Amino acid sequence: MSQTPGSAQRPLSPHLQIYRPMLTMTMSIVHRITGCALYFGTFLLVAFLVATAISPRAYETASWLAGSIVGKLVMFGYTWALIHHMLGGIRHFIWDTGAGFGAVARERLAQFTIGGSVVLTIVLWAAILLVK
């Protein structure tokens, strides 16, 4: 690409050192992270289901592990990742319709995704613990 005299030298592909971090940028990164976390969590879910099919002893072991503090923390994180990823998908679906591209709408959708995922996770876990 030829430069005209006096033109500024700009990077061809601006990256993080050029852009000011924004909430929607962070949400994009978190959406990818939660997608990866869901792969791990789904593997654990399948391992639990396989343990139930293998034998009563394997089920008891898997059940004990899932009922431990670490197991509950992993399940809580999996629940949050699932809900957060789902709400992020809904946000992208809204964008696919052509809506929500304004600066205020983008910010509100990102805030809704964060707040909604936290609130829905807490409400779901409260309901689960109250039923027990």
Automatic annotation (TrEMBL):
Subcellular location: Membrane
Protein name: Succinate dehydrogenase cytochrome b556 subunit
Free-text function comment from the UniProt entry: Membrane-anchoring subunit of succinate dehydrogenase (SDH).
Keywords: Heme, Iron, Membrane, Metal-binding, Transmembrane, Transmembrane helix
Membrane topology: Multi-pass membrane protein
Position of the signal peptide: none
Alphabetical list of NCBIfam families matching this protein: succ_dehyd_cytB
